[in-house]
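Notes from hallway chat w/ T.B., transcribed later so I don't forget. T.B. wanted the structure written out for a chain they're using in a teaching module, and asked if we could keep both sequence and structure tokens in one place. Agreed to drop them here.
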Amino acid sequence: MTDTYTVTYTARSITYTLSGTDATTGLTIQYLGDQGFGLAPLRRITTRGPLQDGDSDIDFRLEPRVLQLPLMVVNTSSTSPRYQHYEIREKLLQIFRPGDDAYITITRNDGTTTKTRRINVKVLGGLSFDVDPNGYHVRTVVQLRASDPTWYDPQNVDTYYTNANINGTQVYPNSGNWDVFPVIQLEGPITNPVITNSTTGQSISIVGTIAFPSFYIIDLTYGAKTVVDDLGANKISTVTPSSNLATWSIIPGNFAIAITGTGTNINTRALFCYYYRYTGI
């Protein structure tokens, strides 16, 4: 049975191997472990009355996380180890150049099952390269910050809600352990559509008609929360004030979605796009 665990870092459309020989730099990198990969940091939200002992714990939020990657590259040069030492450092600094959007990918396989988890990061620090005077191997720690602390399966889920289920309910799975905020493409014709998460009771109502072959893209991801049509025109004004645009999500487990509206036909459908998300690995 083969049991494998690989770690890669992708930035500027280049993927670097951090747990073996990297084809781009030629470095053989020893992955010495990790820190900050488990449960995301939590912040409890509390309130306290003027005469209350203690407080009332009402909710929590996940905080951004810092991941630390201890790495080592063995210097194999017998003729110019000092030169090679600084060549290794230069290549590591090129891999972890600050300012670029990047992601870490963990792939593990037990011989029959492969699981992949990914998290979006930016370089935070580390890489100080404190030199051991007795040798020229390069040992360092890379610090990465994930503003969204959840890991996700990079195999995105694209699921159609067909016309046969319009004005009905369709059940989907969320195999992760955290809420996801999908991108929904609602395709006409449909008038006054309402998208309801029957499991949570939250809904998004749109006033007006989406004609065939037009569609609306409802992006519920954080940092977006936008509604545009197929031409890119802003349609946020068509969303009713009572809609749960900011908080509409898909919770873990099996969830049911209902779409209602009038004036539909065989062309009417909705596409839900999302990733399974996890609080840690």
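Follow-up for T.B.: The chain has two domains: 4-149, 157-278. Might be a good example for the class.
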